[in-house]
Amino acid sequence: MTAVTDGYRQVGSFESDAPSAVGVGRDVIAFGLGAxxxxxxxxxxxxIDHGEPIVDLAVADRLLVLSPETLTAYSLDGDRVWSHDxxxxxxxxxxxxxxxxxxxxxxxxxxxxVASGRERFAVSRTRPGTPDDAFLATPTGFVIATWSFLTAVxxxxxxxxxxxxxxxxxxxxxxxxxxVAALQSDRLVGLDRGSGEDSWRTELDARQVAPVGDGxxxxxxxxxxxxxxxDGATExxxxxxxxxxxxxxxxxxxxxxxxxxxxxxxxxxxxxxxxLLTDSVGVGGTVDVExxxxxxxxxxxxxxxxxxxxxxxxxxxxxxxxxxxSEVTDFPVASVRREGRADATVAVDGNEAGRGTVEVEDAxxxxxxxxxxLHTARIDDGVAEIGVTVENVGGVPxxxxxxxxxGTEAAGVAPGDTWEGTVTRPYEPDTRVxxxxxxxxxxxxxxxxxxxxxxxRPTIDAAVERDALRATVSVADGVPVEDRLxxxxxxxxxxxxxxxxxxxxxxxxxxxxxxxxxxxxxxxxDAEERVRVPGNGTFTTPSSTGGRDRxxxxxxxxxxxxxxxxxESEESxxxxxEAAKSRSRSSEATSGRDEAASGPxxxxxxxxDRAEPSAEAPTEGHSASRSxxxxxxxxxxxxxxxxxxxxxxxxxxxxxxxxGESTDSVEVALDDGERLSLGRLDRGETASIDRFVAxxxxxxxxxxxxxxxxxxxxxxEVDARRLPVSDDAVGVxxxxxxxxxxxxxxxxxxxxxxxxxxxxxxxxxxxRAPLSTAVDAGASATVSATVAERPAPGDAVPVSFWxxxxxxxxxxxxxxxxxxxAPAAGGEPALTPGISxxxxxxxxxxxxxxxxxxxxxxxxxxxxxxxxxxxIDSMFYSPARRDxxxxxxxxxxxxxxxxxYAEPSFExxxxxxxxxTEREYAARAAGPAGEDESAWTDDLLAAWSLDRxxxxxxxxxxxxxxxxxxxxxx
Length: 970
What we know:
This protein is mostly beta strands. Helices cover 3% and strands 53% of the residues. Strand 5 (36-41) and strand 6 (44-49) form a beta hairpin.
């Protein structure tokens, strides 16, 4: 509903120096004050310490801050998102929902992606500018005022219009389809935003124009502040003082800057605020209006409602509203004369207070009149349960209400009754979801699509308090959450415990053991907190020497025949008993009615916890067996329907529940011979084990059959299963050399978009090492790193990669095969590409110097380097050929380029032989060019890259299936 107001009232003020920059958003105004940004939103004020002088500000989907030579983006909550060079820029402009902001310098307008800070493209200005330029974002592009010239540029960088207004432009604003310019000749001009033609001109000594307005724009003139409409109509605003004035895009907040004071105003709605709550209505239904009293005194008002095409009975009501309170009143619909979208007008004490629209139904005798609502009922293991409510607010019964996606149907919903149902959605925080409904009466059908927003991700705050780690898990909007709580403590391993948080928060107190990094997480919701603990607690022990138990870390490929079942069972029981003792001493977790125990469990690999991006499929296997008076064990497998890609880690979880008598010995056995003892399992107790598996290079991933034994007798089984492997993903085939920890990964891009590998976590400490390897769509590339620990041959090693595509970065968790025969980075000894410091790309004569080093231990023969691409000056180019390159040897290949390319790039084919075996790979060289010789800088040189776009050798050989050892989650 659009509010109607007669003026403004002041709600706050603060003293400050004159702001160096001002940015205006839809509902917030940002002021640059020294090295700080102050955000004003109604009565609220937030400060962000930027730490550098502020040249200009813009509010888009992020807060954009221009400092000398740097452009930085913050979230509106004050978190720094990115920062990039902006040499010589002096203005920035942006608007909400626009992909790109504009960055202006004297000669160039650059279009920069708001999400990532990357420059998308740049255009030359029609004339040189100065730092005094006015620069403004419009809904379709940008407006630049330089001296007397006003230029509009659309979102593609094309000039829409370029006008000489014959007088210096003091200030510019925009409202609707009109650009409003204040001229130094004491004229105010309105120009059509699309053509630049004059819409109107008026004599006015305007000093400043607010950048944006909601239906009109505020103008500060010599005689006061005026409200100027798109048609040039002006109206005095007596409640705002003379001075620079800025309004939010929705008109809800106005700031006045004058004499060292910034004052905040809001529309004066002392009469009361009104809101139309009804979307659709029919005969027998009601139109609901909410009345809010912003003052501190109780108010009694006469409320009147008029809806086109409807007769209301009554159409007027008297409402009493407490100070700073609200009331909802209804207006019953007696008859309908016309269906469709109808205008609704609310009057308070005889004066119009708000306008809106409502969908009017059933012009004949009344029929379908319902109100629908969605709400998040709970979140269970990464799946949101959405409650659906349909209320029959009409005067006739409904024949049926049906959920379109589930087919769930209810018959006979009487007037005034409510039907409720549920649907599920994958939980994605702060995502808006909708549900399709169909309501039927006779031959009349109507579909509805109510929406709601899923709650924010739970937050975890952790801190060390004396001898314990204190953690608080908070859920949003009071929505109950069920998940597996993961607690990792240095020296105590990892514990996963099912947990239900049905209040606002859960409190955990966990004893300290060793110094290191502790981790608290909700497994399926990807919410986690890491905190370093000093290791000075009561249970502190000296740090272990690290490393893994080699027998427990081996892949299922080699394990079956190496140890007897007796030895393995004894070792597993020992580990289980040790874990039970640890759990006993670390169960100090409480939260009101909620309790969650946490403590050390058997040793695991931290990376495994985050390795499975896919949601688990519903239970796919179940088997139980009961003997007279003995145990009855049910076995359930949880696994996704498909593997996300080659090499991607998939969690295979087995849940065992004792539905009968207690049993002293429960063991789980796989068909490859691997076994794990769960120890004693009491009646009603549940135990979970899991492992991570990945497909090598097959199109299917095999999950092995599982048998559960009670006291040596098989009492439950789950059949083997084969999962299809996605072939339209970024696959990773990786190996690790156990001798030196060298990691080699072939990244195969099966998508239809180019991507770049930007980082790798090769170890269990959660660290990230930077990478930068481009992989075209359908192509492959090789990356390398070093694993911190030395795995045993046959291990499956968890590794995480970060891949960026279309400005978005995601993490891929994979398993690498520990293989003593794994090739070194790049396969065989190879020529490693790079850019020589002698590269110089600027002016008329440009050369890119490609450097190739033999980083292997073998000599390379029949070496050739051939470059190809449009920027290459073919008149002076010739390929490079060498008969032999010794280990550690180097080739430098000069490639001369033609001028006129701002971002030249070309491809290079490198071929050589190793011991008579021919090898070949392709690479791409790309980077910026300077305008002239003097413009070449070290930063331009550093921006040049030479990246492989396919591998020199075949992908590393890995088995068809990789797997980590079984581990108990309890």
